[in-house]
Amino acid sequence: MTLNKTEKNILVESHDPGIRVIKIARAHALNALNSETLIELKNALMREAENPETRVVILTGDGEKAFIAGADIAEMKDKKPGEAVLFAQLGHEVTKYLELMNKPTIAAVNGYALGGGTEMAIACDFIVASDRAVFGQPEVGLGIIPGFGATLRLAKYVGWPMAKELIFSGRRIKADEAFALGLVNHVYPAAEFFEQTLALARTIASQSTSAISCAKKLMNEFSESVGLNMKLDGEAHAFGMLFGSTDQREGMGAFIDKRKPSFQGLSKGE
Prior knowledge:
This protein is an alpha/beta fold.
């Protein structure tokens, strides 16, 4: 294994044969995604997409607690609607790379995968989880909606009724329930989780890269009923338009203050 610190918030490990492990390295913030980290992650994915030696990409989080605990609420809290739209669109650029790049992508979820964390995971080709993993879309508790693709992608895994329940309730689910719902392919004990993920990646890396690339392209095309970009653009604008609302200010303020929010619903003019 070789280790590369390619960016401030991103670590890249190289494993034979041609496996790249991209780690979000903000363990102090439970690997939460701010704009800087999203840009660095996008750059890292672009490099691996163009690297002829890369055969499989694994996305995971640094440390033992979190895959990605979500978007950085401290950064988001005071965004204006237009700024929030741009932030969501930046998240979409990253998730589209994970979903559509010509290399197979595996989400190795080692802990909390909340909000944008679940959204990054479901943009990968499939998910492998530690028995410590926790998934969820808690955005409604912040007065907003998911902004990195969950309104489109989550139902591909769990069906529309369950996707609506998870998004509307904001509830968290542990690894065993995520497996039962079809959200994750495999759940492994934490002590052997990463080695099991690497073993699976090595099996994939030993196959024909051109055949896998072709199969991935076709399967992504077959799963789209209307254009992906149109759907994601609608989500980004809906996400952004909730910023500045009474509930968004209360929800994110309560999160920062570590208290329960008191939502008022729509007020006049909202």
